[in-house]
Structures are given as C-alpha cells and as structure tokens.
Recover the amino acids of this structure.
C-alpha cells in the first residue's frame, strides 16, 4: 500500500504535459545528481536544505508540489513536510527518480538544458510572428522541460545578436551555428523531442503532425492540415507574439491530449453508441 502523501510514477506520468501539472521539485543531492544527471520531465532542481524558505513562493501560486529525490525517502519526505508546514499541498514521488526510471518513464538529460538566468529560468529567442514550430517548441519546453521558460520573439535579423547579449538560446533559425533548428526533413520540434529524451508514443505522434504542418507535407498526418489552419488563424488574431503563444499553448494542449487519449475515438451525427 502506498505511503501517505506519495504519488506513484504511473499516476504522475499522466499529469505531466498538462497545463495543471504540479510543480515538480528535484532535491537530489549534488552527488546523487552527478551520478545520474537526469530529470523527471518538467522538474526543476532546488537545494533541499533551503526548503524551509520556499513556502511563500508556492502559496502565492497555489500550485500543488511533487518532491523528487533519489529514492523517495528522507530528502523528499522532509522537503514535502516543510512545504506542508507552510500551507502548500505537497507529495513525494514514490521511489524517487530511481523508481521513475525503473518504470521506463522518460527523463530529460541535464546536459541538454541551457543555462538558467538569475531567476532560475531558461531563456530562448526566435523569430517574431510565429506560425507552427515557434509555438510548438515553446509548448514542449513549458510542458516538459522548464515550466518557467522565457521566450523572446525578435526581428529575424536580430536573433543571434539578442541571444548573445541577453544570454538566450536561439531556436528555429536557419543558421549553421544554431543547434535547435531543422535538420534534414525534421523540424525543430522533432529535434527537441529527441534531444530532450521525450520519445513517448503521444509526443512522437504529435511530432509527425507538427512536421507535416511546418514543412507543408500534410500527407504525413491528416491532422497536419488542421494544425496549419489553426496556426494561421491564431497568427491573424493576435498582433502580439506572446499573446499568440498563450493562445497557442491551449491549442497544443488539445492536440497532445488527442494524441495521448483520443486517437481511437471518432465523432459523427446522429451520435451512435461507441462499440465496446
């Protein structure tokens, strides 16, 4: 029987990728993390011994917290207890990162993450007026890599200079020195799914849809044409790129949930009973 205030890896895996995913806090010791430098998708590392001071930040956001250490024992139990003492709903990942990996669930390699700013956020920069990849990639990063990631949309000619001056990571830019961009027939979203270690069946299915939409190959997936239409519609609804990004996040949330949970479900009229 699971201990109180714990969550199983399988249950947490169903929550990751949703807009209401709990705050995931990795508190592994530096030694443990150096031996296994991987993160549960969306987790952010924090020093376990600073936990008594975290309460106000989490109370302000109202987010549920899941604490992760190596095995789900003293460090995560203690940190979660401190958070609860501060009025934060907090649970522990059962088995820690060890249990998560034993369940063959995806992890993000720490060496693939860009450096963080003074507020602990990754900062990314790309071309303004996004359509497909430049909304899809931020969605992937926010939902599976860094929930607090910052995205800067600038004039295409200024992307690399802004990246250098502001310590941002450029993406989806056609330049030989930009790592996060198209490679051959694959789009930037494809690359991020692979490089971040997120090759789950739903995300690979979504990657095919995004690739078809972003590279004008709608034959790759029937849904690609719909994604193009929705993306172009959003780009005309919003003059502000960040407002478009906010709206686009909901669009990709819906596509992801379809890829994960609803590919075998249809819709017709008049409605018919679903076959058992």
């Amino acid at each position: 029987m699971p201990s109180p205030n714990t969550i199983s890896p399988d249950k947490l895996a169903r929550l990751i990728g949703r807009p209401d995913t709990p705050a995931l806090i990795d508190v592994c010791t530096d030694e443990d993390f150096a031996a296994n430098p991987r993160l549960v998708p969306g987790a952010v590392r924090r020093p376990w011994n600073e936990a008594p001071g975290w309460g106000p930040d989490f109370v302000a956001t109202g987010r549920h917290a899941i604490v992760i250490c190596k095995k789900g024992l003293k460090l995560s139990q203690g940190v979660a207890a401190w958070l609860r003492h501060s009025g934060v709903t907090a649970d522990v990942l059962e088995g820690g990162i060890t249990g998560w990996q034993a369940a063959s669930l995806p992890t993000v390699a720490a060496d693939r993450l860009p450096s963080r700013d003074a507020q602990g956020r990754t900062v990314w920069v790309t071309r303004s007026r996004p359509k497909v990849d430049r909304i899809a990639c931020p969605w992937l990063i926010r939902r599976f890599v860094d929930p607090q990631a910052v995205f800067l949309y600038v004039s295409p000619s200024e992307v690399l200079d802004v990246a250098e001056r502001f310590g941002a990571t450029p993406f989806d830019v056609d330049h030989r020195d930009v790592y996060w961009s198209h490679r051959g027939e694959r789009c930037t979203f494809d690359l991020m799914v692979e490089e971040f270690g997120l090759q789950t069946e739903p995300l690979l299915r979504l990657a095919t849809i995004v690739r078809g939409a972003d590279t004008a190959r709608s034959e790759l997936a029937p849904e690609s044409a719909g994604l193009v239409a929705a993306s172009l519609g959003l780009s005309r609804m919003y003059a502000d790129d960040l407002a478009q990004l906010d709206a686009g996040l909901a669009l990709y949330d819906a596509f992801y949930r379809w890829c994960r949970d609803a590919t075998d479900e249809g819709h017709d009229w008049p409605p018919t009973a679903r076959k058992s």
About this structure: Strands lie at 6-7, 23-26, 38-39, 44-45, 65-68, 90-93, 108-109, 123-127, 150-154, 169-170. DSSP finds eleven helices and ten strands in the chain. The mean pLDDT is 95.
